Amino acid sequence: MKNLYMVVIKITFITLVLITFTGCTNKELYESIQPKYNESECRKLPPHQYEKCINQKAKSYKEYKREREEVINQG
Prior knowledge:
Blueprint: H1 2-33, H2 39-42, H3 47-55, H4 61-74
């Protein structure tokens, strides 16, 4: 009976940890796959691509999420 109690506690703990991390996962995943443009990387490009590289700004997660929800609601 004591083993069953420990198993239930472990499963509950693991479930709570997974639920906690799931809230952050989508935003962190989105931000981690966004290209990181810094000046040193842009300098490696040909001159005609340098300006575009420097001026490129990644879309924020908030903007991405809003646009995604608009597309989902349209369909």
